[in-house]
Amino acid sequence: MAHPRIPAPILALIALFSLAAPSYAQSMPSSAAPQTSQSATNPALSQIQMEALGWLQGLLRIDTTNPPGNELVAAKYIAAILQKEGIQPEIFESIPGRGFLVARLSANAVPDPTRALLLMAHLDVVGVDKSKWTVDPFGAVIQGNYLYGRGAIDDKGMVAANLAVFIQLKRSGARLNRDVIFLAEGDEEAYGGTGMLFAVDKHWDKIAAGFAINEGGGVFTKNGKPQYIGVQVSEKVPANVDVIAKGTSGHASMPRKDNPVTHLAAAIEKIGNYEAPVQFNSVTRAYFQDIAPLQDDETSKWMRSLDTPDRGDHAARVISNENPVWNAMLHDTAAPTMLRAGIRANVVPSEARAVINVRLLPGNQLNPLLMKLKQLVNDPAIEFEPQLPLSETAPSSSLSSDFYHSIMHVASEDYPNVPVVPLMSTYFTDSAPIRMRNVQAYGLIPFPLNDDDMSRFHADNERIPLDSFQKGITFLYAIVSDFSVSK
Asked: What would the CATH number be for the domain defined by 8-231+395-484?
């Protein structure tokens, strides 16, 4: 596939960023940007940033909504870019139109998978309601300082950043001390059966690595200032459960007590209001300890009290009410997400269904939670049926690996006095199946983003700030270089 031309208005915008970089940077809050900028002194890095913006726009214009995915259209687009650079990628198809792309920069004639670094990101995106967007979600529209599009953050921005870093390593002739592997996989939004799981189960030799960087964490900002750099080392385990109510069908003019819609509604209200007990693990304990000093005095007080026997329960209620992410980090959760019942307005159906999306803390099992929900609902008309297969808990990645130390080292240079904090994501990523293969995988979306930016992925008007996209490439390139390029 030919590399699409970047429209003239975008070229003008890119040129503006390139030519006016010093004054543009000065106009931004100094703490919102890395304190040291490789791109400011490295023309080659500035060039790859400009190209990456065009690549990201090209990816956003390819509709890879899952289902059906059709990720191989995007994979072929990337393949054409890599081939132009003299890099020969491989594309593996799991089912028609789906699969993954992989490419490799080799350090030696004989690969050493235990040392290799995997740059990974997924090509598929969640669906959109176009009527709720202010721009075309697949138009890659630039307005102000933002590039809009489904996947701008989750996860085509990461695909484009990884691609930029990978190509820049090739162009620079860097002397690698380990293989660097580029992976663009599909089906992450549906737990990876035709994407990452296919790659791991059928083509592990192509992606085998000792270390990986993926989505999952990030550079978290507030009021234009970076607060902390969260590195995902663990994640909650997802499960979908059907909640089914059965009764007697009939004419709606003669309602019965066993109406399944009524029973289901009552059950879902109880499930939606249920709060599981507070539980800590080593990652969440470290996370709350590390971010407590960054909060206001009142929040910090209760955050420091989370793991105390006398005030822990009350502290958890305060913290949970303040932030839904913190709430999800402290509990198993069960969120009703879908309802289905009836065939027409004047017919009482014989069955009504709902789906609850469960997120389990690592190490927890589904059955104890379902038993608690059954007791809570206390209705023989309600059945719970887990959707198979169930995911396994992956081990946490190490906080003492060489790669984690590289992330911390580069972060200290690019973001002085900003703490690096280990975190457990409340959502699933493609890191889980490779952690099961003992890969030290770390989640770090490298773009500085605030709460409003983060709230838009999986939501309407997803967008990425243009300056954050550029800074993210610089930050990611520094991390990969520090770890993979011989000094």
From this structure: 3.40.630.10
